[in-house]
Design brief:
By secondary structure, the chain is mainly beta. It is built from one helix and eleven strands, in the order βββββββαββββ. Mean pLDDT is 75; it is low at 1-15.
């Protein structure tokens, strides 16, 4: 079984025809135009010069490609990595003078989250620094 290399290579099929390929791309031996992916076709016809290639000569070709994630930069991947980096840092909540309904302590931490639609207020989550009791208030 022939293996398409990740570099330019020329092979000769069983019928004696030469074919040039680069990775999984195949080129017309007459005009060097890029040929369509062979698939299950009996004949591959070059759209530039009309030369026809037997589809069977492409059947036993195995293409193996390898790449590293960094080889293809992506805005989404960069954003995800930034978000993960921020998520790994320790979050410090703000404190406020609020009476704990459970233990009577006067200091609580809080954070806010937009739980409902944008035209409605945020939900404030309180947590007692002394006993850990928590509750939320919709603003």
């Amino acid at each position: 079984m022939a293996s398409a290399k990740p570099h330019s290579n020329t092979a000769t099929s069983a019928s004696g025809q030469r074919r040039a390929n680069f990775g999984s791309l195949f080129f017309c031996p007459t005009c060097s135009n890029l040929l369509e992916n062979p698939g299950d076709q009996d004949h591959i016809v070059c759209h530039a010069c009309g030369d026809a290639q037997e589809g069977s000569q492409f059947e036993e070709i195995e293409t193996v490609s390898r790449s590293q994630g960094s080889a293809f930069p992506s805005r989404l991947r960069n954003k995800r990595s930034l978000v993960q980096d921020v998520g790994e840092t320790e979050r410090v909540n703000a404190t406020v003078d609020e009476l704990c309904q459970k233990c009577g302590a006067t200091e609580m931490t809080f954070n806010t989250l937009q739980m409902r639609s944008a035209d409605e207020g945020q939900t404030v989550f309180y947590k007692c620094v002394k006993c850990g009791y928590g509750f939320s208030v919709n603003n």
